[in-house]
Amino acid sequence: MTIEYATPYRSRSHIPPDLGRPYFVEKGQGDRAHLFGDLFTIYAGGEQTENTFNFFTCEGPKGDVIPSHSHPDTYEVFYITAGAVRLFVEDTEGEQYERLLTTGDFGFVPKNCPHAYRIERHHSQIVGVAAGPGGTFERFFESLGAATLDHGLPRTPVVPEPHRFGTVPQEHDVLFLPDHRWRTAG
Hints:
Protein name: Quercetin 2,3-dioxygenase
Structural class: mainly beta
Shape: globular
Organism: Actinomadura fibrosa
Strand order of the largest sheet: 8-5-10-3-2-1-11
Domain Cupin type-2: 61-119
Pfam family, one: Cupin_2
Order of helices and strands: EEHEEEEEEEEHEE
Number of strands: 12
Oligomer: single chain
Strand content: 35-45%
InterPro entries: Cupin_2, QDO-like, RmlC-like_jellyroll, RmlC_Cupin_sf
Number of helices: 2
């Protein structure tokens, strides 16, 4: 049984738009968006948690490093449920870390820390949780990328127009760092 709701973001969603209701979402039935070569699926966001956290998955093929960025007010968790993902993080003192995370591994990125990742194996999946006092950023994926009803990866990468990198991210606590360089080996 599937219940469909309308939200401010979608005419059809499996996530209720109001607070205080338990709900259940079948695998892959959350709000979905394509960004770059990846599929992001949102299962809970700001509307359901009073902007305290979000819960999403990212599935993608082996690929390039996603653009370096930080979240001024948001802490982010990376938990790998399939495949392998290389996580790059720089702490607030400027020390850089690089770690290959495989199935069952966990990575934590504090707020204000530049970070990026690269999916190292096809069919990898990240479970992400983000939380912070400034709200949640789950609608960033469909605002910068493209909302989709598809369950699979995009047939061609969804690459936003360059000017969108200067407008959409600030609305969602994402600060792109185009000049950031990783000194680590990966």
